[in-house]
């Protein structure tokens, strides 16, 4: 089964309601070259989710940037998976490195969140990735395998999971991974899934790349056989996000 190209826009903690409407306006006017070949999801901050959902073109979907690890209740400041489902939010990003590193979310905690969100019917963009120090010490693959293992141990169905490889050193730095660097880790992750989960899951799970993706470097990355799309930060707030979505044509015409 061919893996449908997936492009996510992670808006992180950015935007006013005016700015958000402007970004959505640009997306709504954007010309998508191969609409049947790409799935597009944008992830505004929680407070803007209903607004974005109400004005966004119907072929694009929305994602939350996080959710609580279990059923809601006395957890001040948290948003539960049930609430996202209640609002008709189909996707959630979990395990982003900014939460792992700045808010000390462990592999196990992220794995628990992924399992809980899936159990409530959400689709999950699960993020993994190594720091510069880990890459330089040669432990990149060990790190992403441990992050993936903590998820794999807690779930049995990967249908609603997209795995995002986001090297921390490439996030917001302008230092994008080379196509070869991205391909190497994606192919190792796919191999890991094949050995530890199943051949089918390895074949069908989309592994997307994130970290300084732009309108100018996206096509070369998309041409790599194991790069099934992108998770875009900074450039997802700009009109060039449409060009990144259109990198799907590289796969569609391959
Ligand atoms: O963290 C990212 C997406 O989740 C990537 O961010 P940048 O595209 O700004 O590097």
Automatic annotation (TrEMBL):
One of its GO terms (molecular function) is triose-phosphate isomerase activity. It is found in: Cytoplasm. Signal peptide: none annotated. It comes from Zingiber officinale. The keyword Isomerase applies. NCBIfam families: tim. The keyword Cytoplasm applies. Pathway: Carbohydrate biosynthesis; gluconeogenesis; Carbohydrate degradation; glycolysis; D-glyceraldehyde 3-phosphate from glycerone phosphate: step 1/1. Keywords: Cytoplasm, Gluconeogenesis, Glycolysis, Isomerase. GO terms for biological process: gluconeogenesis; glyceraldehyde-3-phosphate biosynthetic process; glycerol catabolic process; glycolytic process. This is triose-phosphate isomerase. Its EC number is 5.3.1.1. Homodimer. Belongs to the triosephosphate isomerase family. The lineage of its organism: Eukaryota, Viridiplantae, Streptophyta, Embryophyta, Tracheophyta. Its main location: cytoplasm.
